[in-house]
Amino acid sequence: MDLKDHWNKAYISKDETSLGWFEAEPEKSLELIRSLNLDHNSHILDAGSGASRLVDELLDEGFQSIYAVDLSESGLNVTKKRLGEKGAKVNFIVDDLSNAQHIPNLDAVDLWHDRAVLHFLTDEIDQGAYSRLVNSKVKSGGHVIIAVFAPGGAKKCNGLDIKQYAAEDLSSLLGTDFELIKSEAYTFYNPNGDPRPYTYAMFKKK
């Protein structure tokens, strides 16, 4: 399967507000980000950003250096169109988190945020590539926030298999350079009203 084509079709075939992962307000992510009291000049990378409203919220809160990364150019284009002139402050990057070509050239980031991307990497080789990328791009003292499908929850999303994670699984994936600061269970209700149990976890790089 051509995953780039798969994700582009998802955004082209439906309004983003009807997609299974759509969040009108990314409340849990914002709650965790606000708890960090980041400087507005901090570099933030939103992995799997697509058409997420998180970028809008970060801009409204005054952040000046945002990388919106996604495999789907169509998803990022939805955000570009929605933001209009405000989008000039965002660096939109089409890249594959399991085989990154552009992310390695970016400045190191203060925060890596990933909601609902990592769980699509079901191959151990891809998971390892993701882990190495996070380790290489997050500054010492920087943070990682990851939200993924929790054990006992959904096994598929958008027609693709996923891997479920508990907080300790995420710790093992990121490795010993990261300390788990906080984790919690969170139930997201998709646009159809169906519950989707998530694991949210926040780490600090030592």
Task: Count the beta strands.
Answer: 9
Trace the largest sheet across and list its strands.
Answer: 3-2-1-4-5-9-8
What structural class do helix, strand and pairing data support?
Answer: alpha/beta
Low-confidence stretches: none
Q: What do the pLDDT scores average to? A: 96
Query: What string gives the helices and strands in order?
Result: HHEHEHEEHEEEHEE
Given the C-alpha coordinates, what overall shape results?
Answer: globular
Q: Please tell me how large the radius of gyration is.
A: 16 Å
Treating each run of at least 4 consecutive H or I residues as one helix, how many helices?
Answer: 6
Query: In whole angstroms, how far apart are the ends?
Result: 38 Å
Largest sheet: 7 strands, mixed
In percent, how much strand structure appears in the residues? Answer: 25-35%
- Helicity level: 25-40%
